[in-house]
Every structure is written in structure tokens, then in C-alpha cells.
Amino acid sequence: MRLNWQLYMLLALPLSFFIIFRYGSMYGVIIAFKEYNIFQGVMKSPWSGLDTFRQIFAMDNFWNSLKNTFLLNFLDLIVSFPAPILLALNLNELRLSLFKRFAQTVLYLPHFISWVIIGGIVYQVFATNNGFLNEMLGALGIGPIPFLTNPGTWLITYLLVGVWQSAGWGTIIYLAAITSINPELYEAAAMDGATRIRRMWNITLPGIAPTIILMLIIKVGDIVQIGFDRPYVLGNASVGDTSRVLSTFVYQLGMTSGQFSMAAAVGLFQSVVGLVFLFGANALARRWTGRGIF
Amino acid sequence: MLLKKMWGLAGSIILTAGLLAGCGSEQQNVPDTGANVPQERVTLKVGIFDRGNSPSGVTVTNNYWTNWVKDSFGAVESYIDVEFVPIPRSGATEKVNVMMASEDAPDIVFASTDNLLPYNFAKQGGLMDLTDIIDEHGPNLKSYLGDVLEMGKVDGKIYSIPGKRVYQGRYTSIIRQDWLDELNLQMPATTEETYEVLKAIKAAKPDSIPLGFALRQSSIEPIMWSFVEPLNEEQRYTMTQQLGATDFPVLLPGFKEGLKFLNQMYNEGLMSPDFALDTDGNQLNEDIMNGKVGLYSEDTGKTYNSTPGIAAKLIASEPAANLVPVDPYTNSEGKHAKPGYLPNNFYIMVPAKSERAVEAIKYLNWLASEEVMNTILNGTEGQDYNLVDGVPQRIDSQEVADRMYNAGDIELMTSAVDYGNAEMNRKAMVSSVAEQFRARAEKSYEIGETDTLNQIRFPDPIEAEIKYGAILGDLYNEMLVKVVMASPQDFDATYTSMMDQYMKSGGQKILDERIQAYAALK
């Protein structure tokens, strides 16, 4: 301690950040157990025990949101998770470095576009009546497809737009992992006459397997956490039963209706379920591969 | 707390210094003599709606009218500095909820025209009791608002001040007269005739949208309420559901028939196919301006106003186009029943923590004086308007339009100058409309006021409506979309399941509470 006091000083700053802004603000969750009055503040509002939770569990919309959160995240995991891996494998095989860099940049770009703007683009492209895509399909004699107004097709649109937005950015971490693979392995394999596909399958993939598992654990832990922007922006009244998720439900309760206690309770419930999933995924990963993240 | 005050002090010193620096050389000495001014200067924070429509070069908090208010009110109450605080018009309730919770609300704050928000705040102890302050400092305000002020009472005390709504009509339908002429059709006067006209338009112009429709109350309500059966008092009180500022007909007899009618229109391709996505009405406006729409309903007067300039833009591309107001839907009694507005405008509140309640009332009282109202709403004679038959007619120019764009949001106490009779008021209201549309706009205001249904209010709001209103409002839209877009054979099943979901999500609680409240009323 005395020897390395400079290092502890350096650590103190980020540590105090976490204590003040991450743990300090957690006392706010107690409003989930109170009848929160915005004018009396957190401490003076009367306690209400588990009443808030009872009210939430009695709401149809809550169970619907919970189900949709799992559904959307689970499907997203299946569709969006492999996409950056495939993309990274492909990018890695590109020989022309100029083209490779160009392709990478083009693939990253959607990540930097806000969901609000993507939402606008999606409406322009996928609308049933004047959407660009349906007008093209119409010219080919294919009847209008309700990409945004039918729950089934909406789900596909939602997932694919997600892939479009995030796949390119997701490749960064895999490309970094690929660079750490010993190039001698490739040379030796090439000597032995292994084809490109063979080399990808037997060298690159096993080489980045730990990274893939790490990413999977993180994703599974997040399965109950869902971003607000994407379902809120892409959702609409005709697919409300599918696009209503916990984050939009919290927004509706807290911001629109001013029911802050209920919103906090939903958020707390969400965190508890998320924690269960995180530990579950970690335990599974340890059993399958012998390594987890904690 | 001390730190906060010091920052505030530092801020006002910098602000004052900045103001004085701009005042020319001979006033440079004022700070030295400032200590002799008897009354301490105070800043009154006043909310103002930001509709995102400021002309280039100005903002909602710094434009012709905000400066005029600062100068003119400053001349009356020289110790008060007015500072405007923007409140985004869309999402105002959310923003004000957050402002109130973080004790960051301006001294004069408002969000909506419904009584639920002020009631909720008042019950939680967040609003200033204004009863005595109004008695002392608000004589104009009291005499101008009259009975409307009663609507701001909770438990017999005035906790909020509703502005006055002079014109209480709400919706008008507009039809393409030139299409009717072209196809040799009569102006429709009943729902059946309207349906026939829409079918004829579809047959003659297959690419058109006979009935323009958006997922907005202005599209939905004129049709749905025309299907509602005549009600007795008990039914109106108990079976109406107030979600936000508006009464919804979900449980009323005839609601299902209304949905059935829309379902038929949708399945026959007579209405906007993507209405479910059009929650802001922009798609509908665009379709109308591109000459695709035959009939639509809207917030009264919108078509002819200079923003977004629907009629003007349509005529620019299709000179023969003629949008005229019409009253196309009839109920079982043959009346053109449609909802109207209550006589109140936005509910203006003063937070309980505000230290400027007296100044706030002085300000509102000043806004309620006839001279100030006339000036803000009409502008300056010769510069913004000319008097024609005693009614100010706005001068038709971009400069005037840019100057007057948010005058209505500055004048909180009323929606318009009240001339005391409906015809005169209509004439005044259309005076800001471009001359070529004035006669049609006047007719449109007349239709908006015809056979209007009053909103129903209990003395105290229904608690369940405060709690579930927002969720049920969204669910109502979902129900409408799903049921209208269902195939005709699925109509009944979809209706039943959505209705069930609606009742379970709070609709039943509202109904129960209303039945109790009605029993208590008797």
C-alpha cells in the first residue's frame, strides 16, 4: 500500500466514480417499495411494501412485455450473433487491403446512425403503401408485403434491420481476435494442402472460440435487458402485441403516466431476472468449455 | 443548497452585466447606483411551448414576442425580469413530469388541456394554492376567465388556472369538390351517401385514396362518434372513458358498428392503407397535398392555415383542385354528431416550491388584460393587420407570418380574442388565413361547431384514468388498427379479444370507479 500509493491514487478516481454514480444512485430503487410522491422525495414517501409489485403482476401488458423482451432478444441472439462472426471470417480472407479497409468502413457506418434516423429510413423503405421496396416489388407484379404492419413480417424486418445496424461493428472484436492467431499455423496448413474453407474451419474458428463464448455469455446475460430506441422506433400500433417490451413499458409507466414506483419496480424485476441469466450462462459456459468469465 | 444559490447569483450578475453592456454608454454607471433601487430584482421563469417551427434566425425563447413581453411587462412591473423556458410541445407531459420531479420546473408551467395532470400534482402536494393570491393580484384574470377558473379547483381551492378556449369546435371534414364535379356526384350529406361517393371515387380513380386516414383522433373521432347511439345521462357518465384530455367511446353502444364501418372501408381499399404507421399525420398531409385524397377530416381550420399550407400547396401543383368543408357523417338521429372541446385551454400551474407565485399571478393577470391580449394575438395595426369591419385582418406576408408564428403560445390566458358572438369570432379566426381561402375556412369553423357533443367531467378526476390513461390510450389505437385491418370474417374474434385485453388492462377499473362516482354524484 505504502509502496504503490501513486497507483492507488490513480485507482481512486475511477473507483469513486463507480461508488458515487453506479452504487450511490441505487438507493433510488427503494421507490419500488414506496408510494412515491415526486414532491416529497424518495425518503419521505410512505412505504407500500410489495403493493407495487402486486399491481404490476396483475397487468396484462407487463407479462406481454416480458414475453416479447425474451422473444425479441432470443431471436436476435440467433440471427444477430453469428452475423459478425461470418462477416469477420470473410473480411479476414480479403487479400486486397485497400478493399478490405473500404469494406470494413462501409460495414461499420450503420452503427453510428441513431435509431431514430434508422426508423425514418425503415419507414421510407418498408411501408406498405409508398415504401420503396414495395413499389419495386409492385413493379415486378408481387403484391404489397406488410413489412411493418403484420406481426410476423415485422419481426423479420426488426431482426434484419438489427443485423444491418450492428453486424459490421461486431466484427471489430473478432478481427482483433483473429490477428492474435499464430500465422505459422496457416502456413503449415497451406503446406499440407488445406483449402481456404478448411483453414477457416480448423484454425480461425477454434482460434477465436474463447472470444465467441465470452461474447455469448455477455449476450445471454443481457437477454432481459433490451434497448429502448429500437423497439420504440420500429414498433407501431398494428404490432403492439409484439413490439411492446419492458423498456418501452417502463417508459410508458414512468414518463408518460408518471407512475414512477411502478416503473422502478419493473426495472428492478428486470435486473433480477438479468442477473439470473448471467449466472446461468456463465455456469453453462464453464461446464461446456471449462472457462467462464467469473 | 448554498452553492446552488451562489451559482444563481453569479448567473444573474453575469446576465445583468450582459444586459447593461448592451444598453449604450450613458448607462454604464448604473451598477454603482444599483444599491439605491428600493425593490430587489427578481426573475420570473415562464414556460413556453417549443413546436419546432421557429423561422430561421429566431428561437422560441428569443423572438419578437418574447422580447415584446419582456419590455412591456417590464414597463408595468419594473422589478420582474421574465425568462422563458422551453417545453417541447410533443411529449410535454413527460417533460413536465420530469421537471416537477427534479424541482426544475419554471414558475409558470403547463403541459396539456386535461385536468388529470394538475389534479395529480395537486393531490401530491406539488402545486401552489393560488386562491388567495388570485383574489389579491388577479382581478383581470378572475373577470376574464369567469366560470372557467372553477375548472382549476381541487377540493375547493384553485391549484391551476385553465386558459379560456374561445372556439370550442374541434373537427371538420374536407372534400375535393372538383372531383365531385368531375364525376358528377352530389355533395354527400349522410354516412350512406358518403360511402357511395367514396366508392365512386375509387372506381373512377383507382390510384387515389378516397378516404384519407391517419392514426390520429382527428381522423378517428368524427367517424366513430357518429356511430354512437344517443345516450342518457347515466350512460354518458359511467360508460365514457377519459384517456388524457379526450373522452373515448370504447364502451358506448355503437362503437362496434363504427369499427365495422371502418373495417369495411379498409377491406374495400377505400382508406389510407398505411394509416397504422401515420401517427403524426404527416403522410396524410403529404397525400392530400399530392392530390391523392378525396375526403378527410382534420382539426378544424388546418387545411387553410399557412402552416403546413395544405390547400395552398395542393393548388400550387393542381390549380383546379378545390378543397371544401363538408359535414359527411350522420348518426341515427340524422345529426352530424362529433366531439367538441371543453371551454378550457391549457392548465397553467405554479409549483409549490416556487418563490415567485405572486409575480406569476401578476404576469398572468397582465396577459388577461384586453389590451395585451389584442396586441399579442393580432399584432400591431398597420404592421401586422388592418381593421376591416371592426375585425383585424392579418396582412398576408412571410414577414408577418414569421413574426406571429408563436404569438398564440405567448398568450396563455386565451386561445383567441373573444368578440362576444360566434360569427364575429369565426370572422376573426379566419382573418389570419390567406384571402382566397377565407370564406371556406369560415365555413369550416361553422361546421366544426355544429352538433358538437360535450365532454363529460366529474367534479374530481377518476383515479384509474390517471393511472391507466396512457397505457389504455395506446391500447385503444392498437385495438382500432387491429380490428379495422382484420379480414371481415376475423372481425368479431379480433374485436372480442382486443376488447377483453382493453378491459383487463384498466378499462374495467375505470368503469367500476365511474359507476361509484356517478352513484356518489346523485
Beta-strand segment tally of chain A: 0
Order of helices and strands of chain A: HHHHHHHHHHHHHHH
- Mean pLDDT of chain B equals 89
The structural class of chain A is: mainly alpha
Whole-number count of domains of chain B: 2
Largest sheet of chain B, order of strands side by side? 7-10-6-11
Largest interface: A-B, 28 and 40 residues
Give the CATH H-level superfamily of chain A: MetI-like
List the uncertain runs of chain A.
none
> Describe the biggest sheet of chain A?
none
Cα radius of gyration of chain A in angstroms: 24 Å
Task: Give the structure's gist in a few sentences.
Chain A has 294 residues and is mainly alpha-helical. Chain A has a single domain, classed as MetI-like fold (Orthogonal Bundle).
Could you characterize what this model shows?
The complex is a heterodimer of chains A (294) and B (522). With 294 residues, chain A is mainly alpha-helical. Chain A has a single domain, classed as MetI-like fold (Orthogonal Bundle), CATH 1.10.3720. Chain A is 71% helix and 0% strand. Chain A starts with a helix and ends in a 5-residue tail after the last helix. The mean pLDDT of chain A is 88. Chain B folds into two domains: 38-167 and 343-418, D-Maltodextrin-Binding Protein, domain 2 (3-Layer(aba) Sandwich); 171-339 and 454-521, D-Maltodextrin-Binding Protein, domain 2 (3-Layer(aba) Sandwich). Chain B is built from 22 helices and 16 strands. Mean pLDDT of chain B is 89; it is low at 1-36.
